[in-house]
Amino acid sequence: MALHTNVGLGDFILMEKITMEEFVKNLKLRHEARQIYTYIGDVCVSVNPYTTLDIYGMDMVNQYKGREIFERPPHIFAIADAAYKSMRRNGKDTCIVISGESGSGKTEASKVIMRYIAKVTNVAQQDDIERVKDVLLQSNDILEAFGNAQTNRNDNSSRFGKYMDINFDFKGDPIGGHINNYLLEKSRVVQQQDGERNFHAFYQLLQGAPEAELKKLHLSRNLSEFNYVNQTTKGKSDPSSRRQDYTRVVAALKRLGFPQEATDSVWKVLASVLHLGNLQFEAKENEGTEIVDKKALSKLGSLLEVPSLQDLEESLTSRVIAAHGDVVRKLHNVDDARRARDAFAKALYDRLFTWIVAQVNSAIDPSTSDAYVANSTVI
Both ends of the chain: CA-CA distance in Å? Predict the structure, then answer.
């Protein structure tokens, strides 16, 4: 059997003595030999190698395509193929659950599974199916830019939950999908722990966008000028890498059918959040607060297309309370104004992310495919 590999045990079920010490010892032994996958029956345990391994190419795909799960050494391809075969054979939905702590490789595992399914489907090379596969794969670039961030344990940590469906036709070819997102870590927008960073999209915009785009958004490449992204000096700051990331995200937005006006709006909202973070408040002589830098307020009003700066300032320095049919405007003190500013920034980003996911879902909606039927199978 392939499970009897030359390094350790490929399946923990074969262990003679089941203890935590022996379990970890076997994982360590295999990890040191760059064998990062080990089974527990139908469950695949993966250990992040923290390096690039050449185990996901087309030659490896061919080794696992159509094989039973225990025919080949442990690999995530075997899990993906088993789920795909089960769906086709039984005509029923299947599910792959990916769980683990931060930095364990969940995000990469989901991308590996999607790439495997893309490679083993559409043998007839139909253009519509290829478009769906391409859109499904490119949606990852967008979701990672706006939903992932660098943490102390992981350079590309997903800061939101994701449940993704891929719909297949009767031939087993993907015809669309749907993404449910939940629990976006909105607090990261306004404050990050020591050594951590904000969402990738902010840095991609500031360090990757063309100068003309930054000028239009009243931004500069200097991260220290923006309070929501200057809270740590640790992390990647390679401008060339950010330019590549920005270009890839813009291309993905275009590929998914985002009109240019919508793409411009995405960057406008991001810039608005950055400018919001720079607003400072001071107490008035009598009561209430006012915004110190009117120039920063003007930039924000321009990006949010608010014609009256007075209305914008009032919305940030006071709140309206309705009680028993009466409407009362209560002025903020400085602390309340800061909290209101941060709450506004978090709400803006949360709604932007939710809207982006909705647009992605619209682009991969299976009901728009000619091959769609109401009872299509799903992974």
Answer: 29
